[in-house]
Amino acid sequence: MGYLHGFAVTLRQLFLPRVTTDYRGGFDDSPADEKRPKPERMHGRHVLNRYEDGMEKCIGCELCAGVCPADCIYVRGADNDPDDPVAPGERYGYVYEINYLRCIHCDLCVEACPTQAITESKLFEFSFTDRADAVYTKDELLVGDDGSPRQLPWEDWRPGDDAMTSGWMRATSPSGDHRYLGVEAWSGELGYGVRPPESPDTADPPALGPSESVDGQPDSDNTPEPDPGESGAQHG
Ligand code: SF4
Ligand code: SF4
Q1: Does residue 34 or residue 79 have the better pLDDT?
Q2: Which of 74, 86, 108, 113 to mutate to test the pocket of ligand 2 (most atoms within 8 A of CB)?
Q3: Which domains are delineated in the chain?
Q4: Strand ranges (E), 81-188
Q5: pLDDT value of position 197
Q6: What would the mean pLDDT of 32-36 be, rounded to a whole number?
Q7: What pLDDT, on the 0 to 100 scale, is given for residue 57?
Q8: Whose CA is nearest to atom 8 of ligand 1?
Q9: CA–centroid distance, residue 32 to ligand 2 (Å)
Q10: Is 123 or 74 the better-scoring residue by pLDDT?
Q11: Residue 17 and residue 181: Cα distance in Å, rounded?
Q12: In whole angstroms, what is the distance from residue 111 CA to residue 170 CA?
């Protein structure tokens, strides 16, 4: 008689609220065509960000390509023209490609990036019919002059989808450390400015003594010292 319990489980679903939506890919104007809101830290389609002055954040260091487990990022760096630099510092990302036939949206490239150049938006509704479209070039990944991501013909962007393209907290972010509560740990971003610090992981962080550090090791100074690479716009 145990199988009757199985039927009961199935029948019970008929009377529960429906959790699916009538998503149609944006191919018709039906008001029923609905995209469900994404979690704030969802890993979607990447963007290459710019500083508030329009300079590109990518310095062509290839760390993202080196860490990618799917081997789907191809980066070539080039020297900046001192009189007309593309990015702060000596180098910039001359070629940048991501192959979305391989990407598993693990976010390791974002974790590895020292300048917050590569981040992931909330867009997951994109598909293609040929390989060339699946390999996103730098031109397609780089945000525009207003800081918004480029919207490609095969992508289903809706109002608000282009907001907070880098709104996420990396696992190694000092913003997750309660000692950094209220300390800005993000560089200014074109179109979005400097985002406020994110909340620490715990609502009521434990108080540290004067000689206690967050890792339990003796620490004579608990004053947060944000990594220069994480704090504020680091370019001139
Ligand atoms: S999200 Fe993961 S798989 Fe995709 S490009 Fe980044 S490191 Fe590679
Ligand atoms: S996106 Fe970041 S990690 Fe990748 S090459 Fe550019 S600066 Fe380096």
Answers
A1: 79
A2: 113
A3: 46-141 (3.30.70.3270)
A4: 91-99, 118-120, 135-136
A5: 65
A6: 84
A7: 95
A8: 68
A9: 40
A10: 74
A11: 40
A12: 6
pLDDT at 148 over 50: yes
* Cβ-contact 154, 179 below 8 angstroms: no
Coil, strand or helix at 165: coil
Instruction: Extract the tokens encoding 136.
Output: 């996103």
- Residue showing tokens 């940048």: 96
Pocket of ligand 2 (CB under 6 A): 58-64, 75, 93, 112-113, 115, 117-118
Distance (Å, whole) CA 205 – CA 191: 33
Structure confidence at residue 136 as a pLDDT band (50, 70, 90): very high
Map tokens 């880098």 to a residue: 166
Please report where in the chains the tokens 């760096």 appear, as a residue.
77
Nearest 5°: the CA angle 200, 201, 206 is: 80
Q: Which residues of 188-215 are buried (b: 16+ CB within 10 A; e: fewer)?
A: bbbbbeebebbebeeeeeeeeeeeeeee
Q: Which ligand is nearest to the CA of 46?
A: 1
